Structures are given as structure tokens and as C-alpha cells.
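Tutorial handout. Part one gives the primary structure; part two gives the three-dimensional structure as C-alpha cells.
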Amino acid sequence: MGALQYFCKMFIRKKKNSTGSISVQIVNKIGRKNKVLKTIGCSSVPEEIEKFQKQAEYDIHRLFGPTLFDSPLIPAITELSNDDIRIIGPELIFGSIYNKIGFSIIKEPLLKELAISRITHPGSKLRLSEYLRDNGKRDLSVYSIYRFLDKINKKYKSEIEEISFKHTQRTLNNNIGVVFYDMTTIYFESSQPDELRMPGFSKDGKHQNPQIFLGLLVGSNGYPIGYEIFEGKTFEGHTLIPILKQFEHRFSLQKPIVVADSGLLSKDNIIDLKQKGYKFIIGARIKNESKSIINKINEYDWKNGMSVEIIKPDGNRLIVNYSDGRAKSDLFNRERGLKRLEKSINSGKLTKENINNKGYNKYLQLEGEIKISIDYKKFNADSKWDGLKGYITNTELKCVEVIDTYRNLWNIEKAFRISKTDLQIRPVYHRLRDRIEAHICISFIAYLLYKELERVLKNNEISINKAIEQINKMQEIVSSQNIIIRLKNNQTQQKILDIITKEF
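Part two.
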């Protein structure tokens, strides 16, 4: 059998050393003699030995197994078809991350498959069923997947959040001193409203679609701590305190500094946070401040990078910062909004219902009874706010520290962007509440796997999108004789695998 016979004589050996440690080796038996082809590693720690074992199992195929160019295999190759090619990258890479985080304690293989496919092959549950079948994992009907979805949230959500929290805690060296909170809307296609899915203000611009609110709590660098869903008509300002109390109670979370954008700014929230002993940094709506504070802000001759601190009557600090770059951006957005209004007026599309304080509609005014025009005076007056950004805090941090801390809120915005684009969390096509909650839960796991891969690739000049593309191209061939041939990785694929093997 030539090379195939050679391959069959190869095996993995665990050799006990005189020191008590175990060496994991790839050995080739030639006649009565054993030749060590490669020593993977040596350790007395069971977890490390198991890791060496997995590496050996991979290397024995990659380095020493048969290839498509081995002459004894040529007759078998002629019988191969595309159906014999299987994608192995997602399980190889994300499966390792999934297990290392600790999700493998949940003895449900389908949970892993659902989470991984959300990253590598996002789409419907029918698509997942087809993917599993095409890649030789198992023939699982879409109805079996739906039945599993029905129990995920009730049975596993708490455990999933606990595993995620502990992992985030380890990653941040047990220092969750700052948490970031934000909400987004998840809309539904072609669905009737119910007690959970209701039309409301949509951050996706889908105001007519039934929706839910998703509240996400993350630590530094966007590592997830937990999430909660709320009915679609919920006022987002009423969600912060409940989710903080929930996680503080469940995980004995020490009072962190809470960072949130101005959507969470309300008098009740501020009072609640202070009464419950939280420090906070929340985006301010400086245009809505008292007349005396607005006058004080407008007195300054603002320069790039300049910050001022104003003590509010309730004792909280209002910090206002000016940036030339932000000023250019604000002007650009205002002028773009103005052009859209002018275009709509000229086309006759605007009505009295459009005159409100939402967005750039605030520049509209009604002339007489029927004519709508633009208040250019109001538009020009708003230029005094270009470049200004406010923050309300009860911390003792310096102005620059408050601003720098708040800027990290972009991590949670990035988390939502990843969830909505890369993981395709919306639109949601499920109708039943259990399945909606399961969909969000799976996406939460997928986001953590995504973040972990992003973390380990950060210093290796491989983008996360390129990595996922290459992972989906890592393949093996399974012949009708059940001979497994792992196709050789390209340079990028091998680099990713080496990083994962080392880290996990």
C-alpha cells in the first residue's frame, strides 16, 4: 500500500518519563523498531497533556498523512466527488474557542453548532440543517432544531451568562471596574405585534415593524457580561437599573463605574444610580440644560481639545469638551440634513405631521395654514453647538479621564454592529417567544466566540473578516473507503491554527 501502509503504522504515544511527566509523541513503527517522528510536548498537567494529544492528532494527518499526490491513492481519487469534501475550519477553530471558554460543560452539541454557524454561515435554521448534512456531521431536520430552540432560554440562559461572565472576568484579570450599557432594537419581518414584539421608536429606522429592545452590558474592550430583552415599546431609560441590579445580585458584582449614552439620561436614573451607590458617566444633552448653564457654555471661546467643568445644582459635574474634528462632522451632518429637507419640500412630500423636534425636522416651520418652509435662522443658530460634547458624572476622575472612559462606549456600539452585520442577528423571522429568546442567546455566545478570535488575532496582522473567510476554506476529504485526507492549509490558515493551538 506504499504511503498508505506507512501512514497506518503511525501512532501517537504517551511516554512516561523518569521525572513523572508525560511526553506526547508521534511514532512510526518500522519492523520492530519505533522511530519518533515528532515530540509534541511534555507536561505533568492533565489539561496540557490533553492539548498535546489534540495537536498530535492534527499533526499526524497534516505532516505525515497521505496527500492527493501519493501514487497509491490515485485510483481512489478518481472516485472522489465534491460531496466528499467537508469544511472543518469552523469546528477546528471556533470549536476550540467554545470549549476553552467553558461552554462545553453544556452537553448539547447542537448549541455549539448553532453558535458557530451564526459566525461562519449566518442565516436561517434551515440553512444550518443543510450545512450539517452537507459536511457529514449529521442529518438533522429543521424541526429538530426548532424543538431545541424551544428549551434553550429557560434551560441554559443563566448558565451561559455565568460562563460568559467568568470568562470576561478572567480576561480582564478580575477587574470589572467599568461597565458599559446600551440598547438597540431588533426588528421582525412580516409579523404581527404581540406582548413582546411591538412597534416603537426603532434605531434601525423600522418604525412600522414589530420589534424588541436588546440591552447589552459589557466590560472593557467590549467583552460581554450579560444581556436582557425588553418589549418593543419600552422606554430605554427604564432598563438600566433593572439589569444592573440583576447582575450585581447574580455575580456579586462590585459597584463599577457605569457608562451609558444620553439615551439613558433621565432624572430618575441619575437619582437611582446615586442612591444605590453607583458612580456613573453618562452622555449629556447640553442643549437641554438650564438657561444659566447654557449661557455659561456659550461664554467660552472654544479651542480644539478644550474642556470645562460646571458643577450642577444636584452636585453632579457637567464636563464639556470641544473638538475641531467633531465640529466639522456636526456641520457636515447638519448641512446634509438641510439638503434632505430642501429636497423633500421641493418635491411636496412634507406635511404638517413632519413638523416636530425629531432630528432635523426641528428646522421646519409652518407658514400660514398650508406652506411649510425651513427656519434658516434656527439652522444657523445651531452652529454654536458644533464640536461640543457633554458628559455628566459623579466620579472624581479628571476631565480627560472621564472623556477617555466614555469614548470606550464605542465598543458596545461595535458589538451591536457586529451582531447586526457579521452575525446577522436581525431581522428575526421567529414568531414564538422561546425561539426569539433562543436566537438572541445563541447570538450572545457567537459574539463572545467572535471577540475571542479577534483578541488572539489582534497582534498578528490578520483581520477578523479575513480569518473567518479562510476558516471556511479549511477542508478535508473523506473517501468512500473512509480514508480521511486533510487538505494542506495555506499560510494564513496555518497561522490561524497555530495561534489557536497555542492559545486554547
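Part three, for discussion. Residues 446 and 456 are 16 Å apart (CA to CA). Confidence is low (pLDDT under 50) at residues 1-8, 67-75, 197-207.
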